[in-house]
Amino acid sequence: MRHEKRIGRQRERRAVRVRNRLKHDATRPRLSIFRSHKHTYAQIIDDLAGRTLAATSTLDKEVRAQVRSGGNKTAAAAIGKAIAARAIAAGVKEVVFDRRQYKYHGRVAALADAAREAGLMF
Question: Which residue, 58, 14, 67, 51, is CA-closest to 34?
Fold first, then answer.
């Protein structure tokens, strides 16, 4: 029980630390990701206006047709390409990458690399 509480607090502290270090303004919205065991989600958020500019996940029909499982690096790469395409269509080319409490490894790194290759700059 103590171990689970400690891990939860560490994740919360890491998420706050990452968010506080982000340098973004009106010209650079935030690319935020969420990773569950089965799926991966990404959205581009304009914090000043308080609205989501683009979003995608492994639950979207277009992405789901490309991947077998939503919880692996292949799916994360597909999400990265899809979110970059939707962001560019919405007029956003530069973002700030908010990895939340997740370490930059595995699915998180795959999503970021695919988004960069598809034309998103961060």
Answer: 58
Whether 122 is covered by a domain: the verdict is no
pLDDT, tens digit, for every residue of 88-118? 999 999 999 999 889 999 999 999 999 999 9
Those residues whose C-beta lies under 8 Å from the C-beta of residue 73, and which sit 6 or more positions away, are 106, 107, 110
82 Cα distance to chain centroid: 11
H-helix or E-strand spanning residue 20: helix 2-21
Number of domains in the chain: 1
CB 80, CB 42: distance < 8 Å = yes
Range of the domain at 49: 2-117
- CATH at residue 100: 3.30.420.100
**What pLDDT does 4 receive?**
62
> pTM to 2 decimals?
0.85
Q: What is the share, in percent, of the chain residues with pLDDT greater than 70? A: 93
